[in-house]
Amino acid sequence: MPFLGAHMSIAGGYYRAVAAAAELEMDCVQIFTKNNNQWRAKPLTGEDVEAFGRELKDSDVDYPCAHASYLINLASPDPDLWQRSVDGYVVELERAEALGLAGVVLHPGSFTTSSEEAGLERITAALESVLQRTDGQQVEVWLENTAGQGSNLGFRFEQLATIVDGLAVADRVGVCLDSCHLFAAGYPLQTRQDYATTMSRFDSLLGRDRLRAWHLNDSKREFGSRVDRHQSIGEGHLGLDPFRWILNDPQAAQIPMYLETPKEDADGNPLDAVNLATLRGLLE
User: Fold this and answer.
1) Contact residues for 221 (Cβ-Cβ < 8 A; gap 6+)
2) Bridge pairing between strands 62-67 and 103-106
3) Residue in 119, 35, 33, 135 with CA at minimum distance from that of residue 81
4) Tell me: the pLDDT tens digits for 24-75?
5) Alpha-carbon distance 53 to 48, whole Å?
6) CB neighbours of 7 closer than 8 A, spacing ≥ 6?
7) Where does residue 221 fall: left (phi above 0), alpha (psi -120 to 50 degrees), or beta otherwise?
8) How many whole angstroms separate alpha carbon 28 and alpha carbon 24?
9) Which in 200, 216, 221, 223 has the greatest CB count within 10 A?
10) Alpha helices in 100-213 (DSSP H)
11) How far apart (Å, rounded) are the C-alpha atoms in residues 51 and 267?
């Protein structure tokens, strides 16, 4: 059975994200280790690490992971931003290692004024530097597929494979698949055969053993829109069936799956429990 959880707030302390996840009987949790819209990071304290670890130990929550800052762009043609992004992702991994996280999810990057080929080369070079500088760590790099907005890279499996194949050593590099992003990028998921075809393509290019996690999100936009807009489970253009195929895939057993869906409805009612119940109702 897959592990189901969500991205949770660290407001008031990292341990609070775990406590909130446990209260909703989640199996896993995703956090930010710092403000995701700032380069600056408040130093982690021993108390932060200890309280987070204690909360994990005292709960049934497993597979804690982080999502990297949205400012990071490893594909940038700007040398200053590229170096700042490399340094920033190293910091993300160092903080995640200290907290004992399984991985740090990363959007590969946008080539902006260069080209797809140049952008992919920049990402590979950046990750080579990151992996060398964090050699010996246990925490993994989890590349996330994107919806393909603008010049965003990683929306095709071929692009992710180019990045991974270009690395000298990629044993600490995995992939986090986002259901909304797959759908928006034009990968069919609606029928059981659609899902099987999409995952077969992933397997042929990257290998199913490279899949470390899922982001479970419905889509506010239509198939192939290349627009990244998340919606509650079953309330968007994906509907329920794609999540049924994902959750009941025998090869997805023991894989953590994190919700990144809206936290509240229009009336301010909390939605995490609702979305979790919907997903659990699809398990066979």
Assistant:
1) 184, 227, 229, 237
2) parallel
3) 119
4) 999 999 999 999 999 999 999 999 999 999 999 999 999 999 999 999 999 9
5) 9
6) 29, 30, 31, 67, 258, 259, 260
7) beta
8) 11
9) 216
10) 116-133, 157-165, 179-184, 192-205
11) 34
CA distances from 143 to 65, 81, 238, 279 (A): 13, 19, 23, 24
Q: Which residues contact 273 (CB under 8 A, 6 or more apart)?
A: 24
User: Residue 111: which region, alpha, beta or left (left: phi > 0; alpha: psi -120 to 50)?
Assistant: alpha
pLDDT digits (tens, 9 = 90+) for 71-112: 999 999 999 999 999 999 999 999 999 999 999 999 999 999
Scanning the structure block, which residue is given the tokens 């989640």?
A: 26
Q: How many residues are there in the chain? A: 284
Q: Which fold has domain 3-280?
A: TIM Barrel (3.20.20)
Place of tokens 């199913």: 208
CA 45 to chain CA centroid, nearest Å:
25
In the structure encoding, which two tokens stand for residue 163, read together?
């990045």
Query: Domain coordinates of the chain in residue numbers?
Result: 3-280
pTM of the model: 0.97
Residue pair 30/63 in contact (Cβ under 8 Å)? The answer is no
SS3 7: strand
Cα–Cα dist 131/27, whole Å: 29
